[in-house]
Amino acid sequence: MTQHFDSSQHPHHAPLILTPQGWHDYRLLDSGHGRKLEEVGGYRFIRPEPQAFWAPHLPSQDWAEPAGVFVSGSRDQDEGGKWELSPSLPAEWSVNFEDIRFLAMPTPFRHFGFFPEQSRHWQWCADLIKARIKATGTRPLMLNLFGYTGVASLHAAKAGAEVTHVDSSKKAIAQGFANRDHAEMTDAPIRYITEDARSFVARELRRGRRYDGIILDPPKYGRGAKGEIWRLEDDLADLLAAIKPLLSDQPLFMVLTSYAIRASFLSLHHLMADTLQDLGGFVSSGELAIAEDRPHGRCLGQAIFSRWQAETTL
Ligand SMILES: C[S@@+](CC[C@H](N)C(=O)[O-])C[C@H]1O[C@@H](n2cnc3c(N)ncnc32)[C@H](O)[C@@H]1O
Known about the structure:
Layout: E1 16-18, E2 26-32, E3 35-40, E4 43-48, E5 68-71, E6 82-85, E7 93-97, E8 100-104, H1 119-136, E9 141-145, H2 151-159, E10 162-167, H3 170-182, E11 190-194, H4 197-207, E12 213-216, E13 221-223, E14 229-231, H5 232-243, E15 253-258, H6 265-276, E16 282-291, E17 299-309
Parallel strand pairs: 1-16, 4-5, 9-10, 9-12, 10-11, 12-15
Antiparallel strand pairs: 2-3, 3-4, 5-6, 7-8, 13-14, 15-17, 16-17
Helix pairs in contact: 1-2
The structure holds S-adenosylmethionine.
The site of S-adenosylmethionine has 22 residues, from helix 2 and strand 13.
């Protein structure tokens, strides 16, 4: 019997486990007993982490007096809940990654307005963007769908891409502008568009616009700017098929990430591979994780991803 995706038989299929590299303003200090202890721009926070089955590594005094604790609303810790914040914590504060400054804040969605584990994708895209510029002297065009607060867009623009950033939420786009201004990248070539991702893709196809790189991080459930309903399980395959013809004649990459779905990275891998199979190139897939900041620190998977890279950057 053939083993189709058995990494012991096909080492080139081995899943990638990627953890953040090069951060000073984000650290996972410890995890255990269903929680994680993190430092974000000098402030310590405790958030639920149902995957941390093990015991904490650090003594309990290291977990004492954080600037904020997210208290879960449900027993399985998956939904609801609220922050309990120290009165001295500012509403937002500055963090830095690879010389890009952006804003951190505790959000009702229990995160900080950015996702450090995504930085491996930012770096991977930046390498391909720079390779293209070096080879051809032209700025690649990148599309960031479901772009949220836009750190990926800033990073790609800094690497030299012209970026189109799409999100259906006015609030997310406003935060994208705030981050752009905070980074002092007001003149960066980024178009911010408040629109439903699928409507935008359909419109771009009609207009004949094409992109060299596309990244997308669709939520499990979302709403377009006009109330259009997005359900990942129902809508992702059609969206990916619709995006494919948006790739230019000399495409560079496509990156698909997903949080909060009950699926292995294999589901994204096969969708990506099937959709783009006639373009050649390579698909690699796996998990984005965060790692405790010490030798042999334990890792916590945060998201699954699949990314496609063209055969050549030329
Ligand atoms: C998981 S977040 C993306 C996080 C982002 N990639 C990052 O790393 O910062 C999902 C985003 O999709 C947006 N969204 C939800 N439904 C949408 C839709 N139908 N069209 C466009 N954006 C949508 C939300 O407003 C939210 O900002």
